[in-house]
């Protein structure tokens, strides 16, 4: 389009300035004012007036032209449409109305009279004006018609072009979709609502080992597999009924070659525009390999490499599931088995033999149970477990334990060597949903050790009392080391009475534990534990120090001899001699003020090397007493080889002398030992003297010293000093 | 299953198109009977509509002229509709024939028409995109070619934001378009409003017509429209009824019906690079 430039002189408001002489300008101003509201032009009012001015000039010229022609009217009508965008039919009356009223008036010739033709007559002017209006109307109408047709055609073309572009894009999109479908590594299948497969891509066909064409004859409802998860077909029914839009499962399929295809399957419901289910879309990922790998890894993680049995992990999982209240199991039974003396096999015959033995044991154990609900597992080392779901009472579990032991009874042949296998079994049986796996395992373990302590090759049933004791032992053992640091031990002293004059000959130091929870504990509660854990060595040294130091405080001129017990482990400790001498020297006490009590059983098995430290101490002047004499089946002939100076007769011999008259056998026995001891130059001390007649009897039998409640119970150092020493 | 975003939308010529209705208001014939029916009903509901359309066009011309005077030669016209007469490039080229214009519309027919009419002029481009996806607009090759770092742009959103309902987050869309524009860029905006002018009935009947068309009409209050200028500082006289913005002649000569929307031009703050 053309936008007429405004003449500078017309920049002002129309109707002002010197254009009053200019008829066409006036005409254009009126024309513009009238037509503007009826147009959709993008011109401003001023621009429209400027546009109309030349048209007004041309109209004026046409009116007066000689010869007259209405043709310019057509052109002006056309320009009004094409350039001023007066396209509305409503504009035409306005356009023509101004021409009718003002054209003749504002186009009077004002130029030189000689150049101008004769003025038109009124009628002629009216007639010409009317014909010009007809021409304008014709030009306008033709232009509107042409413009309308042109725009309609342009629009149709544009619509077609747009449609074509959309179709092209759709086609491209279709092609892309097809490519996605065809080349996807994911198997894609589309089935109708009856399950008939309408389309399957290459990946899906390859997974199934069939051609795409073959796939299209299939019905997905036929693809039932025995290993289908129970919910698969329920989910599928829901989807087919339109109640579910998608689901995802792991699903197996049978391949024509007999192998199984495992897939990660996602099924989606495709609905039509009305929301009605139309198709089912299945996306499948082949996870056969991954699943196998997973199963293998899972198997490896849950099975023992050596025996192939389920391992501790799987056992723990199963135990947890069974014990859980949601496991659907009411009772459980557990046989916890440990091979007796397996360490000896490993140590003497080597690990290879040990491993073969374990494999054989595993096979035998497994042969005892065929029920799938029973799990035989290797817990680790030489420990095995058999877990039963819903046993018919304790009998079934003990029966199984018996058959386990029986299965192991026949010697195992390893590398041509027959090895007899013994085992101890702890049995726990009970209701599920009450105890934690860890509790059950601890109970089984404790019970198994009870069977072992009872001699092994047997089973024991869990029982709360013995468990409580075992747990107690366990807790004491744990607290022992700290007890020494916390100064929870203390000593009591029991006097040793010379039978000849009834005077005090010495004192036995006895250790006690003031436990913060359990209170005062006697040595039989903790000395075996200390011996077992090795704490006996520092504890023993402490007792020795305390006792010797105490003896000094009582010493008034002549120190009182003090008896201190020495455990087997202390006896074999390399620092025994050095420590003992150090303690004696530190206290400034003569070795003869100390008597070390060693049990008969500890000395019997000792060879000469092991006796050396005792000999050294004896040579220094330390007394050595043979404690609990008579319980160790010792060869009396050996007594000469021992560094002992005193025999302490076990209380079991003196018990028969408590009553009156005394048991004649015991009397004879004690008499014999006393004479034997005296013959070897040993003194005899009797323990457990509780009655006067007993004391009299023993004195008559020639015993040298005595100890027991008849004289005094063990007491604190203070009380002891008060009762038995001159300083007290 | 939903169609992916990259799949093309179909064309449904049985649904009235707001750009073809606009063409009808402007006396054009780039419209089908279904568009004209809707447009006639709209005019019946709101008799001044053709004059409003014309006033918007006039505003756009004045704003373009202003932009060229500010030295801007790059124009991005979004929601341009069917280019017939009184277009941005006509107005711009009248003052500076180097001016470059890219027209963007989401109506495939309007875009196809624009491509036919405007092809051959290297200064002009036509893009099919939707302002509700600013990234699509900005990543169109024609727009990428138009935008150059440090070169201010006039972004025209004339009579278009009132077709974006709040759920489409028009402010976020606008921010997406203007974020990268250099300082000194202009935002040219007009928006239908029921707050000014003689009609205060909420344009219910008019909205009904547009609800059946391919975009709903959302009128907004002046302050809501002002919020679109967030990043821009409006130049004198600010956000005003469309005919009152820097008028060529005395605005009181306008038909009162056209004072029914607001228009303004904002300048992006900051110093031009």
Summed up:
Chain A has 728 residues and is α/β, with parallel strands linked by helices.
Q: What report would you give on this structure?
A:
The complex is a heterodimer of chains A (728) and B (273). Chain A has 728 residues and is α/β, with parallel strands linked by helices. Helix content of chain A is 48%, strand content 19%. An eight-stranded mixed beta barrel of chain A has the order 13-14-16-17-18-19-20-21, surrounded by four helices. In chain A, strands 2-1-5-4-3 form a five-stranded antiparallel sheet, sandwiched between helices. The longest helix of chain A is centred in the first third of the chain and has 62 residues, at 122-183. The radius of gyration of chain A is 60 Å and the shape is elongated. Chain B contains ten helices and eight strands. Chain B has helices spanning 18-25, 33-45, 49-69, 88-93, 108-118, 134-139, 141-146, 170-178, 204-211, 222-227; strands spanning 74-78, 100-105, 124-128, 154-158, 186-192, 232-234, 240-241, 261-268. In chain B, strands 1, 2, 3, 4, 5, 6, 7 and 8 form an eight-stranded mixed sheet that branches. Chain B is globular. In chain B, 51% of the residues are buried. Chains A and B meet through helix 5 of A and helix 3 and helix 5 of B.
